[in-house]
Prior knowledge:
The complex is a heterodimer.
Chain A (H helix, E strand, L loop, with lengths): L4 E6 L2 H12 L12 E3 L5 E6 L4 H6 L5 E5 H7 L4 E18 L11 E5 L2 H10 L4 E5 L6 H5 L4 E6 L3 H5 L2 E16 L1 H18 L3
Parallel strand pairs in A: 1-3, 1-4, 6-7, 6-8
Antiparallel strand pairs in A: 2-3, 4-9, 5-8, 5-9
Chain B lengths: L16 H20 L3 E2 L5 E3 L9 H6 L2 E3 L5 E4 L3 H12 L7 E8 L15 E8 L3 H18 L5 E7 H8 L4 H12 L3 H9 L4 H11 L2 E2 L1 H11 L8 H17 L6 E4 L12 E7 L7 E5 L17 E7 H5 L22 H15 L3
Parallel strand pairs in B: 1-5, 7-9
Antiparallel strand pairs in B: 2-4, 3-4, 5-6, 6-12, 7-10, 8-9, 10-11, 11-12
Amino acid sequence: MAEPLTIALPKGRLFDTVQKHFESKGIFFEIEKRKLVAYDKKENLKIYLVKNHDLPTYVNHGIAGLGICGEDVIYESGHHFHKLLPFSFGGTNLSLAGKKDFTFEDNSSPLTIATSYTEMTRRYFHKLGIPVKIIKLNGSVELAPVLGLAPCIVDLVETGSTLKANGLEVIQKLGEIKVYLIANPAYYKVHYEAINRFIEQIKED
Amino acid sequence: MKNNLLRMPHGTESLYLEETYRHKKILRHMEDLTESWGYLPVQTPVFDYYDNYRPLLESRLEEQTYKLIDRDGDMMMLRSDITLFLARQMGLALTEEDMPMRVYYADSILRYQDHEDISNHESFQTGCELIGCPGIEGDLEIIFLLAEVLETYKLPQSRIHVGSTALFQAIATPFPAEDSRRLNKKLHTREKDAIRQILQNVYKKEDAEELTRLLLFIGTGEEFCARSREWRTLLDGALESSLDYLLQINKGWKDLGAFADKFRIDLSETGDLPYYSGIVFNAYTDGCGTALASGGRYDGLLENFGYSGSKPASSVGFSLFLRKLEKLSGLDMGKPASLHSENENTLTAAERFIKAAALRKQTGVQ
Lengths: 205, 366
């Protein structure tokens, strides 16, 4: 029997969505409580459950050949992967947000932005030729304008309800963030036939 | 103050005892094999003037290269890629009469690596160059040599993926430089929709669709033969000569009748380095998270370094990161013979000398 393909899946909300999607395509697996490794029922896949932000590290080192994660995580990791299949689920928007009265004109250069997504933020504004000062935060970035750390933030925004609850609003949408099936490039080259069959099986109708 | 005794500069590596023994044995195997193919060793300097190489460094290698200022105020670079240092050396020394020239190298390189990337094992590079043997014969010799290297090291499933820069350039010719770079980038990430969209900026929708399939093609020689018939007529036959060349490579491989499953045509291999001019290839092995070896043809490279003979110094070669291979090789390297067993420590120096001589005689060491 052929060796199973190795795939890393992220813990959290995206995991449940991916599991449901896989089930709809005839791939069934359960991860026992406190366990982090499982096989699907047909043993075609060896699945590792990892933290979202660690997923690129596992795939980059070839521990898991494949992974499913958002473009934000891919880009921030700085690693290069094959982005083999985009999914319609799990997508979100990267947005610039600030207090309701925020205007670009109020700020003496450079614009200060608090964010967890430092690389994407820097790339976006540098492409526009706008110098920015970036303050790295690891979460709850909505607090930054409220407490006066920075006049605006860049964050993933789905419904906007957290922003609203903190008196903030979206100033500008910077881009759409999709979820992808990614592959370690060398792993793909060795296993491309099996991976292409897997893509055919899981691609959305 | 930081305790520097506990820190390792990024990109450096120390080997100890049995690991060093294995490294040396693996290296010796490579040297013996390449010498049996008629290749001679060359040694490049540890550092050189940065300006000589600046236009030829792709951005990643540029970032990874350690630079320093010498006492005259010139910018120097530490050896981060032996191919370029070798080209400079050969460009000045090589004459038309010397060609074809077959050389191999094996040495340490220094590349800055992020602390998270220390397992990349890019500290030791070995490889072969065939200079002055243009076209198919030279290309096949280098690919066959690499295939034999992979075979004799008894690696897990390994394959050489051969592509063509000429084919990619024929498709990308009508694009502005920025779009051509973007197309290559998207090809490396295999983003099918993005590739199709870029191609549609210049080509008809159905051509863009077919060119996307072509650029993402990976397959056996037989699969490539079947598909290439459809692709010959694309873009008014502009791709024909590049496709035919790959068919010749495939035929050469087939005629050899060896290493049957080690070869794939992979049109997404376009080469990262700006000096590639013909075929490009990467070798991949199960269990290695990056390419184990990479190479290609770079016919104009030596001219950048002073070669001016009337006969072109066409070059083709590969480099291999030996430390990546060491972890995966199934080759039995034996164990180092140790003189210092518990019992032998009780012997006098003279007794140990006599015993060592006897052991050497027994194992045939001169």
